[in-house]
Amino acid sequence: MIITIDGPTASGKSTVARMIAQKLGWYYLGSGYLYRSITYLLMNKFHYTEDALKAPKLDDVCAVTDPHRFHYSYVGNDPVITYDGEDITPYLKNKEMDLLTSVVATNPMVREKLLELQRHIGSKYNVVVEGRDIGSVVFPKADIKFFITAALEERARRWQEYMAEHQYMHYSLNEAANAITERDDRDSHRAHSPLIATADSVIIDNSGLDKEQTLNKMLEIIREKLSLC
Ligand code: C5P
Questions:
Q1: Taking 90 as the threshold, does the pLDDT of residue 169 lie above it?
Q2: Structural domain boundaries, residue 212
Q3: Which one of 2, 6, 185, 229 has the fewest beta carbons within 10 angstroms of its own beta carbon?
Q4: Of 125, 153, 176, which residue is a domain's last?
Q5: Which pLDDT score, from 0 to 100, does residue 139 have?
Q6: Could you tell me the CATH number of the domain that includes residue 60?
Q7: What pLDDT shows up at residue 75?
């Protein structure tokens, strides 16, 4: 079974996706980690410049997504991504990766390779998957689809807090709003698999809701749709 959660930056989708996976005892797939990993590997193993990231070479995309070298696993309550056995997870969440990943994510070859990988994981487990094109492209026949969003000021505040707490980087609310708007614009307006809410998605605006309230709202819908107790 598959539950998809799509939505813009800092809508809280990865937090609730993990909480739902934990509650149900399902696998969690954060597809953003995959796109971030490809970006990181092209830059750090294949020496791509920011400019070169706009048009990666087929051989390099094949090398970074090679299933013998690149692994996504969900261990405990956290994703772990390795390449040639090296754990690259700690390097994936920073402002540089945020912005450059949305550039790499416009590339159809990259998306095609990651589509295979995501569907492979979806064929092995009951899974909660979050991202931008999960309900629309990756798993269009998912059992339940959510689209989560919140007001821009609220998302900017969450992003600002995340960056201060996890990256020790301080941004004004304005800078935070600009950073996420730039990324969301690129994700929503690209030609291949843009961020959209499909007609069959349950839309949740969690402005003013904390993560527990958002989780409870979603669990209620999941229990009803999947006839769980
Ligand atoms: O979700 P996260 O913020 O980790 O995603 C990082 C970037 O990866 C997004 O801004 C987007 O450009 C790309 N992405 C995507 N499709 C997905 C998941 C992420 O294009 N399904």
A1: no
A2: 1-9+133-219
A3: 229
A4: 125
A5: 98
A6: 3.40.50.300
A7: 86
